[in-house]
Amino acid sequence: MPAGTTLPLQASSLLPPTELATRLHAAGGLVWLDTAVPDAASLSILASQPVEVLTGNIFRDAPVLRRVLQQYQQPHVPDLGAPSGGLFGWVGFDGQFIFGVYPECHVFQHGGGTWLDASAARVAASSSTVVRSMAGASLDMEPLMNKATFCGLVERAQQYIAAGDIYQVNLSYPWTGEWPADLDPLAFYLRLRDVSPAPFAAYLDLAGMQVCSASPECFLKMSGSHIVTRPIKGTRPRGQSRDADHQLANELMHSPKERAELVMITDLERNDIGRVCEYGSVQVTQLLHLERHAQVHHLVSTVEGTLRADVDQVEAFLACFPGGSISGAPKKRALEIIHELEPHERGLYTGAIGCFGFNGESQFSIAIRTAWREHGRMHFHTGAGIVADSDPAHEWEETRHKAAGLLAAAQGV
Questions:
Q1: What's the alpha-carbon Rg for the chain, to the nearest Å?
Q2: For residue 168, what are the CA distances in angstroms to 260, 264, 382?
Q3: DSSP category for residue 131
Q4: pLDDT of amino acid 41
Q5: All structural domains of the chain
Q6: Which SUPFAM superfamilies does the entry link to (predicted)?
Q7: What share of the chain is helix, strand, coil (3-state, %, to 5)?
Q8: Residue ranges of the alpha helices (H) in 28-88?
Q9: Among 44, 43, 97, 45, CA closest to 66
Q10: Per-10-residue mean pLDDT for the chain, 413 residues long?
Q11: What residues are annotated to the active site?
Q12: How many angstroms separate the CA atoms of 358 and 337, rounded?
C-alpha cells in the first residue's frame, strides 16, 4: 500500500488473499502475513519483489535496520492499523535476521472484505498463476531426538530449577525431512493453513529460504507508541468429541501448574515491556484466557503499554526478544541453560516473524508451529515449558501434540 493510500476497494471486484498470493508468488520474494482464522479486526498483508534484502544479527546490526526505517519513514496514521510498506522477514532465536525491503504492500481487511490499496487492482488484472497442488505428495519428517533423551533433558532442567537457577525453561528438539524437488513451498503452506488454521500465520520467500508458519502466538504488535504482547503457556490437545474437548479445555483452565506457568511468564513480559515503556503505562489487560486452535487448547495473557518517547520500535523489539514464553524465567539464565542442554541450534524456531512498518505499524509472531525449507530439506522444532513439577513423559507428549498440524500437512492427512 503506497504511503497515504487508504482507499478501500471491494474484495468482490478483485481477488481473495489466497489468489493474490499465488500471483505475487510468481514475481518472487513473496511475503504474506496471513490469518487463517479471520475476524472483524484481522488483516492479511502481502508484498513481493523486495528492492533489497538485509541480513545480519539484530543484536549487532540493529543500526542497519534503523537506517533503512528512517530512509523510508512514513507518517503514522493511527486509524489505519496496518503497515504501508516495511521490513518484512524474520529474526532467528539467536538474532540472525533476514528482512526484505518492501516500499509498499497490499492490505486486506477481513471484517469489511476490502483491500486498502488501489495497486491490488493491477495485480488482480495480471495473468493468473497456478500453484501445483500437494495432492498425493508427502514429506517424511523424522525427529532428531527420542523420548528417553528428551526426558533426560527435562530432568536436567529440573535440577537447575531445584538449585534455584531458574523457575521455568522451554526445551525443544528438531524434526527434518527431504523436500521433494518438484514440491512448491507455497503449496505446502496452503495445505498447512487448511489443516492448521492460525491467527498469526505467514508465508515468506527470502534469500533462498521459504518459511511456512501456523503460529498461534503474537510476540509484539506496535502501533506508534502503543505496544502489545500476548504470551502463551499451557497446552492440551483437542478432544475427539464435544464432551472430550470440553473436558480437556476445563482441565487446562483449572491446572495449577499451567496457570502458575503463564502467570510467571506474564510477569516476565510485563517486566520486559516495562523497560521501554512510560512509567505506570504497562497493564495486564487479559490473564489466563482460553484459546482454541485446530490441534490444541492454550492459555493466553495480554500485556500492553506505551513506549517512551526516546524508544524506537527496534529498541522495543530488542528489549523483549526472544519472547519469554519460549525461553524461560529468569530469561538470561534460562537462555544459558537452553544453549547448554539443547544439542541442536534452533535456527528460526522461537524467533520472530513479521514486519517493522515504515509508518510505525509493526507486528511479529513467535516462530512456533513453523517449518522452513532450506538446502533441499524441511525443518521444524517442537518444545515444551518445564517447571519443577513437570512430568517428563507428559512434556514429551505435549511436543507431539504441537507437531500435529505440521505433520498432518507434511503427510497429506
A1: 21
A2: 10, 8, 17
A3: P
A4: 64
A5: 9-127+140-411 (3.60.120.10)
A6: ADC synthase
A7: 30, 30, 35
A8: 58-71
A9: 97
A10: 43 70 92 82 91 98 98 87 95 99 92 73 61 71 98 98 97 96 91 93 98 96 97 88 91 90 93 97 95 86 97 98 95 98 98 98 98 96 96 96 94 71
A11: 217, 233
A12: 36
Write the single-letter amino acid at 63. Answer: P
Which residues are within 8 A (CB) of 282 and not within 5 positions of it... i.e. 6 or more apart?
A: 270, 273, 274, 303, 304, 305
- Amino acid occupying residue 352: A
Structural contact between residues 93 and 84, judged by C-beta atoms closer than 8 angstroms:
no
Q: Write a three-state SS string for 81-98.
A: CCCCCEEEEEECCCCEEE
Q: How far apart are CA 154 and CA 172, in angstroms?
A: 10
- As a whole number of angstroms, the distance between CA 13 and CA 11 comes to 5
Beta-strand ranges (E) seen in 195-282 are: 200-206, 209-215, 218-223, 226-229, 232-237
CA distance 43 to 376: 32
C-alpha cell at 152: 533426560
Which pLDDT does position 40 carry in this prediction? Answer: 54
Q: What is residue 366's predicted lDDT score, i.e. its pLDDT?
A: 98
Residues in CB range of 384: below 8 A, 6 or more apart: 170, 171, 172, 235, 390, 395, 396, 398, 399, 402
**Distance between CA atoms of residues 153 and 164, nearest Å:** 17
**130 phi and psi, to 5 degrees?**
-100, 125
99 burial type by CB count under 10 A (0-12 exposed, 13-18 middle, 19+ buried): buried
Dump strand ranges (E) for 48-167. Answer: 52-57, 86-91, 96-102, 106-109, 114-115, 142-143
pLDDT at 12: 41
The residues near 364 (Cβ < 8 Å, ≥ 6 apart) are 91, 218, 219, 220, 221, 317, 352, 353, 354, 355
